């Protein structure tokens, strides 16, 4: 999903810095888009405050102060409230909730300096409704949705908009390659009869990053093929 966010933002003229705990698709994406448009740093974690400080400094040095932040990183572990270990619960929260908190906090000063910005948190339909066997993931995404609203109120005076995108099941390697039966609902469970494509989620991200969404803050765009409409 993050790869499609980068592609879509670069197509619209953005200069993007991305990072991950592994190389992943980062180097290939740099070759595809060109280092003048996209820079990638591996071996950095969203749950590390020093890594976030480094990333923001790097962005400022290479492309200027960040005016868009997409908090995309996320992990899933099938968990139940009666059996999940503290370690597993904390691992999900560290990436899905603490990571976006650190990301938001790290860009505020730079966005204030730039005169404003747009923060986009990739939430989930699991932040709107509960799903069985998803206890830790649901908890982290409901928290992220609340954090989005609280930050939107606190940063409005700075011209910083904070919104969430709530995708339904999306065709990503993480989902398609999983053998965990609690990971995804089958495509036929959705009114459209299919999962979302990553580029459909990226379109929502681009909109929220753009001036067309200049009066939108503290809300969520739900991209789930009408699953939560019932």
Number of domains: 1
In DSSP terms, counting alpha (H) and pi (I) runs of 4 or more, how many helices?
Answer: 7
Taking Cα atoms only, what radius of gyration do you get, to the nearest Å? 17 Å
Query: What's the CATH topology label?
Result: Rossmann fold
Termini separation: 26 Å
Largest sheet entry? 4 strands, parallel
Overall pLDDT metric: 94
Q: In CATH, what is the class?
A: Alpha Beta
Principal-axis shape equals globular
Q: What share of residues are in beta strands?
A: 5-15%
What is the helix content?
A: 40-55%
Q: Could you tell me the number of beta strands? A: 6
In the sheet with the most strands, the strands line up as: 3-4-5-6
Features:
13% strand, two-stranded parallel sheet, 7 helices, 230 residues, 6 strands, alpha/beta, four-stranded parallel beta sheet, Rossmann fold
Draw up the topology in text.
Elements: H1 2-11, E1 16-19, H2 26-33, E2 38-41, H3 49-62, E3 68-71, H4 86-114, E4 117-122, H5 135-155, E5 160-167, H6 173-176, H7 198-209, E6 220-223
Parallel strand pairs: 1-2, 3-4, 4-5, 5-6
Task: Give a brief description.
The chain has 230 residues and is of the alpha/beta class.
